[in-house]
């Protein structure tokens, strides 16, 4: 019985030693958690303070370029979405997309200037021509009504059935690039009511393509221009390409 008692006392001593040593470990663990919480709180406080310092309200919006044709009312409506918003909270890409949907805007870029300013750069579409002597066409092929007295000179004259301006403009673009390489300027682009195409180039030379195989006939014109027509500009009135092969030239009287 005495032996059992001694063994029992040894076991109790081991338990007591284990219990005694585990208390400091728990205490250190609590202190570590508290330190981490304090550090995290301090970090969040610093982050919030810096964010609040940088994220000033926008109170000034500046358009850098001179605005000639873009509606100032449309721009003001978009700008109102920026005022009093946080410097870091404005989605510049979304505002850029909205501005570029406004008539006569070709492209836009926005720049933040701390602490409270947004600078907006706008490139306007150019007027490139008249449509049926009634409307103005910009470099996107969109029609507008503008004061004729304020128009620039040497605009391209576009003619065609109502509602066909997009088709005429697309054909103009396809011709313009190849002609510009050769220094040829289009003065007039026409699609008549029968579906026949013609252009007038400087100096007042009309080129007739007809209704069919327009691309093939246009390429034929480029070939004969390079080979034989360049030195005869002053005597040519029109060039007729409305043939399966070949062409005809009418000289001025």
Short description:
This protein is α/β, with parallel strands linked by helices and 253 residues long. The chain has three domains: 30 residues; 65 residues, Roll (Ubiquitin-like (UB roll)), CATH 3.10.20; 125 residues, 3-Layer(aba) Sandwich (Rossmann fold). The protein contains five helices and twelve strands.
Q: What does it look like?
A:
The protein has 253 residues and is α/β, with parallel strands linked by helices. The protein has three domains: 26-55; 60-124, membrane protein fhac (Ubiquitin-like (UB roll)), CATH 3.10.20.310; 127-251, 3-Layer(aba) Sandwich (Rossmann fold). The chain has five helices and twelve strands. It has helices at residues 2-54, 72-79, 92-100, 165-181, 214-229; strands spanning 60-63, 105-113, 117-124, 127-131, 135-138, 143-144, 156-159, 186-191, 197-201, 205-210, 236-240, 248-251. The strands form two sheets. It has a nine-stranded mixed beta sheet with strand order 6-5-4-7-8-9-10-11-12, covered by helices on one side. A three-stranded mixed beta sheet has the order 1-3-2, with helices on one face. The radius of gyration is 39 Å and the shape is elongated. Residues 1-6 have low confidence and may be disordered.
């Amino acid at each position: 019985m005495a032996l059992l008692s001694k063994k029992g006392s040894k076991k109790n001593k081991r338990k007591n030693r284990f219990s005694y040593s585990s208390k400091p470990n728990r205490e250190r663990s609590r202190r570590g958690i508290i330190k981490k919480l304090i550090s995290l709180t301090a970090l969040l406080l610093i982050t919030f303070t810096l964010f609040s310092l940088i994220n000033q309200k926008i109170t000034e919006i500046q358009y850098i370029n001179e605005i000639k044709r873009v509606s100032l009312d449309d721009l003001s409506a978009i700008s109102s979405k920026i005022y009093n918003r946080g410097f870091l909270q404005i989605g510049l890409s979304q505002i850029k997309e909205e501005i570029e949907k406004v008539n006569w805007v070709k492209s836009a870029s926005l720049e933040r200037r701390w602490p409270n300013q947004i600078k907006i750069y706008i490139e306007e579409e150019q007027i490139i021509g008249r449509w049926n002597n009634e409307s103005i066409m910009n470099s996107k092929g969109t029609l507008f009504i503008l004061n004729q007295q304020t128009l620039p000179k040497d605009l391209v004259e576009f003619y065609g059935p109502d509602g066909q301006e997009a088709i005429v403009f697309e054909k103009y673009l396809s011709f313009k690039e190849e002609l510009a390489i050769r220094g040829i300027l289009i003065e007039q682009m026409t699609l008549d009511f029968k579906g026949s195409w013609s252009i007038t180039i400087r100096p007042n030379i009309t080129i007739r393509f007809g209704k069919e195989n327009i691309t093939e006939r246009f390429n034929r014109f480029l070939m004969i221009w390079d080979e034989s027509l360049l030195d005869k500009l002053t005597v040519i009135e029109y060039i007729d390409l409305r043939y399966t092969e070949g062409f005809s030239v009418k000289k001025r009287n």
